[in-house]
Design brief:
The complex is a heterotrimer.
Chain A: E1 2-3, H1 8-28, H2 32-56, H3 61-91
Chain B: H1 7-21, H2 28-54, E1 61-71, E2 74-82, H3 84-107, H4 114-133, H5 137-155, H6 162-193, H7 198-208, H8 216-232, H9 241-244, H10 250-259, H11 264-271, H12 273-277, H13 280-301, H14 307-327, H15 331-358, H16 376-390, H17 396-411, H18 413-438, H19 446-451, H20 457-472, H21 487-492, H22 509-536, H23 550-556, H24 561-607, H25 615-635
Helix pairs in contact in B: 1-2, 1-4, 2-3, 2-4, 3-4, 3-10, 3-15, 3-20, 4-5, 5-6, 5-10, 6-8, 8-11, 8-13, 10-15, 11-15, 13-14, 13-18, 14-15, 14-17, 14-18, 15-16, 15-17, 15-20, 16-18, 16-20, 17-18, 18-22
Chain C: H1 2-22, H2 26-46, H3 50-75, H4 88-110, E1 119-120, H5 127-136, H6 139-160
The chains are: A mainly alpha, B mainly alpha, C mainly alpha.
Chain lengths: 104, 638, 167
């Protein structure tokens, strides 16, 4: 048993900042790879928060969830990067603005 | 027998369903058997009920079948009321109805719409029975609307002729005006008494309202109900549909527009006699309108040349008499006249139908004449009907009409004199009709002459039966002065609540006998004059288009009432409709609707730019959405 | 001591995260992302989540980021591609990101913080403990996630293939 000196609020603030940075990256950058990375950032912010809550609430389920999120993220990145390769092959660019056919 | 009472209206309904649904599959004989048989079945049940009521084993029974409408404090049941009044009406409806069905089987045998005709006729009898059997105003109203529908369908039976369709529409719309009054009256009854059940309403009316005190609510109710009656029973101002209704087949005119449906208004007023007796003002209105209608229609009848039109105006006039009797507070007398009138007017219409049948559709009496040799049975029965309507003892019309006149005299001799005047006019136009049709020499074409023949037995039997009834029908109400006991009056007395009985003095026997003598003498005199004019001098009404004297012209054109209605009511309504169409429909409603369409079109054209296909824009919109949701959920806690 | 470490790690992760999204060259971004992930792994150590610490390093730093680098190299993307054509979307994006942060922090501020410092079970994040929970309570989701991986693998192979009709 040990006593943590950091409060859960600290983790909340840190996770919020990381998440907001991820969102900002998604919005600001046009390179699809960077956007992917930003998504990973957001996922990690959430993971961190989950672990913090798990520890402070003394419930291991949160950590198991983080494990599953990592699994899903890995699968997502695999497929996402495969799609990215396809896009690059077809359009010759990884600029998100080249994907402007998503309309009626 | 009460257990079978529900079959009375249901049998004609079954007949209607069988004929109506399978009309292509049934041959004419089968249609005739089903159509007449269902009515005969009802008639037999009614007869057994009548016997039970006569010997006193049934007095007043309410048969409740199921809850029809239950809303709030209003609880309306589908229930029938079996009492002397409804049984009397049922006997007339099913009895005369059966005879006319029988007659129709012969009259309509060459018509391609034979099955359709019988299905309508059965539906009519069903509705009419519902009307008289219902134990509350709503059931009555259901039947009321049903007979209106059947009337419409049967007037426009030969729908290929546009004039007939117009006549049907006219009848329907005129009735609609009256029905609105009836409906409002019913609503007012609900508001005032909280129920539509006859027994509850009448009981409450007697406790809430005291006789002799002016009751605006009650006057409004009764006037509205009376408005309904003027529509259905062809009284001023809504009478003009009835002469036009002669467009339908003649048996229909006999059944619906003479014997039964048009008496619905009288039945309704007699049924709610408690309300009317408590509202003397309304009674006076009814009295005036009834008498005016009687005289007014009679004057028009004097100069008409169409055999059915004469009878139609005669019907309006006789209905006026009945309302006159109601207005005098003589309810049982009115019902008495309904009964006798049903016999002789059905007889006259059927006789006229027989004549028209023989004349291959010709209805103008100027083309007839001397038919008595060729149509002996029709002639004999028609004469009986005419004598009965003229009021010569001991035929049916005499007793009922005389009772009305006696009541009129009790109120005032002037009313009596006017009543007698109407009776004299009736005598004149009826005998004019008989003389022009059956006496003298034939004035039609050679072709028509060669075709003249007596109608088949299936048509003459109903004529004979009705003739017998027209002779003896009056004996149910022989007044005391002639040694009778006025059986009908005592029979109906449980239904009629004596309230506010007239202040007039009862007539002494000698006065009554004298009045009878005067009226009968005058009638005989008029017959003699008519015979002089139309038999000895062989006067034939002027052909179409010839110059007529001014009063004659006015009468011949029915006082131009139709034209007046057209100018005063129909044209302004057309004009108003036109304005509503051009201004409200075209400018306001259309523009409003179109504006919505255009607005959505424009709005979506604008919103379309949001769908620009750019993923970064979509993500941006999504983030803004998330921010807003979080903002409202966590910070403002919306 | 803990707080100091937390502060240092937080500064590293935030700075590295900012560097990830603002680097012009994607390769730099990936390298900064590795730094961010290591700092987050440090946070896990701080929280006694030793199992997740290991898994995090292996999955993210070991697998995912190598995949990123691999793709970047494969497609030859290691140069600045984005031309600063218009600033408006960038400004709008930065502002909305900032707004989100403000809203989140506002929401955090509104919470009532009952547990300032709390006794925790140091053994909870151990491999043994989590393994028991994972194969006991969460066995079915665990097996289902293996199916997810299988389908992701098939999907990636299908997508990565050149057009089948060419052969």
């Amino acid at each position: 048993m040990q006593v943590l000196s950091n409060t859960v609020t600290n983790y909340l603030v840190l996770a919020s900042i990381l998440f907001a940075i991820g969102v900002m990256g998604v919005l600001v950058r046009r390179n699809i790879i960077i956007i992917f990375m930003s998504i990973e950032l957001m996922l990690n912010a959430i993971n961190l928060l989950l672990v913090a809550f798990s520890v402070f609430h003394n419930d291991a389920s949160g950590q198991v969830f983080v494990f599953f999120i990592m699994a899903v993220a890995a699968a997502e990145i695999t497929v996402g990067l495969a799609i990215l390769v396809m896009i690059y092959r077809n359009t010759g660019s990884v600029d998100i603005n080249s994907l402007n056919k998503l309309k009626w | 027998m009460l257990q079978l009472a529900w079959l009375i209206p249901v049998l004609p309904l079954i007949g209607f369903l069988i004929i109506g649904l399978a009309n292509k599959k049934l041959n004419k004989a089968l249609v005739g058997i089903v159509g007449c048989g269902s009515i005969l079945g009802s008639f037999l049940i009614v007869l057994s009920l009548l016997i039970n009521v006569l010997n006193g084993s049934i007095q007043s029974e309410t048969l409740t079948y199921f809850n029809w409408i239950s809303a709030g404090s209003i609880d309306i049941k589908l229930s029938f009321l079996i009492d002397p009044l409804s049984v009397t009406m049922m006997t007339i409806i099913t009895g005369v109805g059966f005879l006319i069905h029988l007659y129709s089987a012969g009259y309509m045998s060459h018509d391609e719409g034979f099955a359709r005709y019988f299905s309508y006729l059965n539906l009519f009898v069903f509705s009419m029975l519902i009307l008289v059997m219902g134990s509350n105003f709503l059931v009555l109203f259901a039947g009321w609307e049903g007979v209106g529908l059947c009337s419409y369908l049967l007037i426009g039976f030969w729908f290929k002729n546009n004039n007939y369709n117009n006549a049907a529409k006219k009848a329907f719309i005129m009735n609609r005006i009256g029905d609105l009054g009836f409906l409002l009256g019913m609503l007012l009854i609900i508001v005032t008494f909280g129920s539509l059940e006859y027994s509850a309403v009448f009981e409450q009316a007697q406790t809430i309202f005291k006789p002799g005190v002016a009751q605006p609510v009650l006057i409004a109710i009764t006037l509205l109900l009376f408005l309904g009656a003027t529509g259905k029973s062809a009284q001023i101002p809504l009478y003009t549909w009835l002469p036009d209704a002669m467009a339908g087949p003649t048996p229909v005119s006999a059944l619906i527009h003479a014997a039964t449906m048009v008496t619905a208004g009288i039945y309704m007023i007699v049924r709610s006699n408690v309300l009317f007796s408590l509202a003397p003002f309304t009674l006076e209105v009814i009295q005036i309108i009834g008498l005016t209608t009687a005289l007014f229609a009679a004057t028009i009848g004097l100069v008409q040349n169409d055999i059915k039109k004469v009878l139609a105006y005669s019907t309006v006039s006789q209905l006026g008499y009945m309302f006159f009797a109601l207005g005098l507070g003589a309810y049982s007398t009115a019902i008495f006249h309904v009964g006798t009138h049903a016999f002789f007017k059905a007889l006259l219409f059927l006789g006229a139908g027989s004549v028209i049948h023989a004349m291959s559709g010709e209805q103008d009496i100027r083309s007839m004449g001397g038919l008595w040799k060729k149509l002996p049975i029709t002639f004999a029965t028609f004469i009986i009907g005419t004598v009965a309507i003229a009021g010569i003892p001991p035929f049916a019309g005499f007793f009922s009409k005389d009772e009305i006149l006696a009541h009129a005299y009790e109120h005032s001799p002037i009313l009596w004199a006017l009543g007698v005047l109407g009776a004299l006019m009736t005598t004149f136009y009826m005998f004019r009709l008989v003389f022009l049709t059956f006496f003298g020499s034939f004035r039609g074409t050679e072709h028509q002459k060669s075709h003249l023949h007596e109608s088949p037995l299936i048509m003459t039997i109903p004529l004979m039966v009705l003739a017998v009834l027209s002779v003896i029908g009056g004996f149910v109400g022989v007044p005391e002065v002639l040694g009778g006991s006025n059986f009908l009056k005592s029979f109906l007395s449980p239904v009629i609540v004596p309230i506010n009985q007239h202040a007039g003095h009862a007539l002494s026997h000698s006065t009554e006998l004298m009045l009878m003598g005067i009226s009968v003498g005058a009638v005989l005199l008029v017959i003699a004059i008519t015979a002089l004019v139309y038999i000895s001098k062989k006067v034939v009404p002027a052909p179409e288009g010839s110059d007529l004297s001014a009063p004659h012209k006015v009468l011949y054109n029915k006082y131009y009432i139709d034209e007046i209605y057209r100018t005063l009511i129909v044209k302004p309504l057309y004009w108003l409709g036109d304005i509503f169409y051009k201004v409200f429909e075209k400018k306001i409603i259309d523009n409003f609707v179109n504006a919505w369409g255009k607005g959505i079109d424009r709005g979506s054209a604008g919103l379309r730019f949001l769908q620009n296909g750019s993923i970064s824009f979509y993500m941006f919109a999504m983030v803004i959405g998330i921010i807003l949701i979080l903002f409202f959920n966590t910070i403002i806690k919306f | 001591m803990d707080q100091l470490v937390f502060l240092i790690l937080s500064i590293i992760s935030i700075g590295a995260a900012l560097a990830v999204i603002f680097s012009k060259n994607p390769v730099y971004s990936v390298l900064f992302l590795i730094l961010t992930f290591f700092s987050i792994a440090g946070h896990y150590v701080l929280l006694n989540a030793e199992f997740l610490f290991i898994v995090h390093i292996i999955v993210y730093a070991g697998a995912i980021l190598v995949l990123f680098l691999f793709v970047i190299m494969l497609l030859n993307l290691n140069k600045t591609t984005e031309t600063g054509k218009s600033m408006l979307p960038k400004i709008a994006g930065a502002i909305s990101g900032g707004l989100l942060l403000i809203v989140l922090l506002g929401a955090v501020k509104g919470l009532n913080q009952a547990e300032a410092a709390q006794a925790v079970n140091a053994d909870m994040g151990s491999v043994k403990n989590l393994g028991k929970i994972l194969f006991d309570e969460y066995l079915l989701p665990f097996e289902v996630s293996s199916t997810l991986f299988l389908s992701a693998m098939i999907g990636a192979v299908m997508l990565g293939k050149k057009n089948l009709k060419d052969h």
